[in-house]
Amino acid sequence: MGERLAVVSGGGTGIGAAVARVLATDGFDVVVVGRRKDVLTDTAERISWDIGRPRAVRPVVADLTDPEQVSGVVEAVADRAVDAVVNNAGGYLGGDTGGLAGTAAHWRANLDANVLTAVLLTEALRPALRRPGGRVVLVSSIAAQRGGAGPYSAAKAALHGWAYDLAAQLGPDQITVNVVSPGYVADTEFFGDRMTPEGHAKRVAATLVGRAGTPDDIAEAVRYLAGPAAGYVTGQVLGVNGGSVLGR
Ligand SMILES: NC(=O)c1ccc[n+]([C@@H]2O[C@H](COP(=O)([O-])OP(=O)(O)OC[C@H]3O[C@@H](n4cnc5c(N)ncnc54)[C@H](OP(=O)(O)O)[C@@H]3O)[C@@H](O)[C@H]2O)c1
Q: What is the distance in A from the centroid of ligand 1 to the CA of 12?
């Protein structure tokens, strides 16, 4: 058993799987949470095998928009202290079907997927956070800072305001709360079939470094914020975007 425990939402794919891998490599036991059991199990087994530590990464199936299913994550953690909660689950939910009802459904879906998932998981694990030394990391998006995706942009921006409050509430317990805001990251399930060669080229051209981000780029930022070196960093938004947005 590792000395530290991390819970990573959306840890079965993309950025979350990369985060699970770096944290497991650093000695954390990692619980990866998502809705698809097969995807989570594959990722958990692959990382555990690669780092040579059986069950270093464990899958827990839960739809984090559902309060009842979130309690399953608390049960899986049992009575261990949680050193890091990485709220990475989310994504852009398309499909405004028109009319006010369609608008409401579109906004609710994006707020549920990106805000409620993080709020419910963090609140459920809040009593179990290690005191002192716990870490909460929220994964937002460059869209929170520059718009471009309607309710998804707004939902990710909501995480920033909430992070500031949570950082104030948990600071006296020496628990830090920070946001990692990724720019364009290719090679995840995020864009599905929405990405085109033109869209890819446009996003790469918007960076200062002339390339798309990788899941590892984001995972390294999370690794720092989830680790012991970042104890004096709280209430911050760290952009990892190749310079697509500057200084905020
Ligand atoms: N890729 C980018 O360019 C980019 C840029 C900025 C921000 N981001 C953000 O980075 C995060 C990770 O995205 P990604 O690029 O790695 O895409 P991804 O591969 O689609 O990852 C999203 C993960 O969230 C999980 N998830 C979604 N809804 C969930 C729910 N209700 N309950 C539990 N798990 C849920 C998904 O698993 P299941 O479907 O199995 O539940 C999936 O593993 C997201 O929050 C995304 O908005 C991505």
A: 9
Q: Where are the alpha helices (DSSP H) in the chain?
A: 14-25, 37-51, 67-77, 99-111, 117-125, 143-146, 150-170, 197-205, 215-226
State residue 3's pLDDT score.
Answer: 87
Q: Which residue numbers in the chain have pLDDT < 50?
A: none
CA 34 / ligand 1 centre spacing (Å): 9
pLDDT tens column, 128-158: 999 999 999 999 999 999 999 999 999 999 9
The burial of 181, by beta-carbon neighbours within 10 Å (0-12 exposed, 13-18 middle, 19 or more buried), is given as: buried
The rounded Å distance from CA 172 to ligand 1 centre is 31
Distance, CA of 210 to CA of 150 (rounded, Å): 26
Q: In this structure, what is the dihedral angle of CA atoms 225, 231, 234, 238, given to the nearest 10 degrees? A: -30
Q: Is 153 in the pocket of ligand 1 (CB under 6 A)?
A: no
Residue 147 CA to residue 169 CA, distance in Å, equals 28
pTM of the model: 0.98
Q: Ligand 1 within 6 A of 182 CB?
A: yes
- Give the pLDDT confidence score for residue 94 in this predicted structure: 87
Residue that has been written with the tokens 């190749």 in this structure? 242
Residue where the block lists tokens 């200084």:
247
Catalytic residues: 152
**C-alpha closest to that of 124 among 7, 10, 244, 242:** 7
Other beta carbons within 10 angstroms of residue 92's beta carbon come to 21
Cis preceding linkage at 132, omega within 30 = yes
